[in-house]
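REQUEST FORM: STRUCTURE PREDICTION
Request ID: SP-0412
Submitted by: Lab K.M.
Chain count: 1
Length (residues): 257
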Amino acid sequence: TPGLLEVVLANSLMSHDLGARTGTIHVEGSIQVAGYPPLTVSSRFAGGQAGLPVAFHAARHAAGLVAVLQTSPFGAEMDLAVDLAFRLEPEVRLLRLEEVRAHREDVRPGDVVQVSAFLRDAATGVMSEEIFEVPIPRLPRGTRLELQVGDAPSLAAADGAILMAGITRARSARGLLQALSRLRSSDGLYLRLARPARGVTVGADALPDLPPSVAAVIEGGASNLSMASLNHSVITEQERRLPGVVAGSGRLFLTLQ
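STATUS: Completed
RESULT:
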């Protein structure tokens, strides 16, 4: 079972000196499903997260990927080969996001705005700055834009139904593998610019930014469909891979002048 796999893997890591509460575990490798391109795995897990030994975080991640594949509707057809390497680094590579700041507040369509993210190294206390260049879309005056900068879990929570639909409602093994390959990395700092917009997910398909009349028709006739509502449309997303696990998120709101 998925839970048993996680426990066995965590115990194995801890028995090989990978169970310290401090340090950083690197997980690298792939999960190969016969007949499909390999699912590349590259993640880091740092001590000091949720108070658990870092081995549990690494084990939960690896076991979770395998469990999603095995328990999917296509699991019985899958011939899995798991090739993962776990490496412990004694230093805690943890970067906590402390502040997000836009260099300009008066934004206009076509502008490029610089957004700074300030992160503090949990081990050394040193602060670093990451700067994103964000193009402002050509939308009507008064449009309110939401700008979020944060770690992978924060962006996944903001995705909500869109992210889960691709995984839980995939129509094929290939679709499921593609959805898993799009999962964000634990050492990634992500910026997402979005705007309020009505939409829906139908099955595994996200349909954001629908005209109200179209969304109403779909919702009204979806009694036999697996469907969820959306309240935003993503305009752009950027990724910055950093030399440590990123933790935290920040949010700004911009109004087009």
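NOTES: The longest strand covers residues 188-202.
Reviewed by: T.R.
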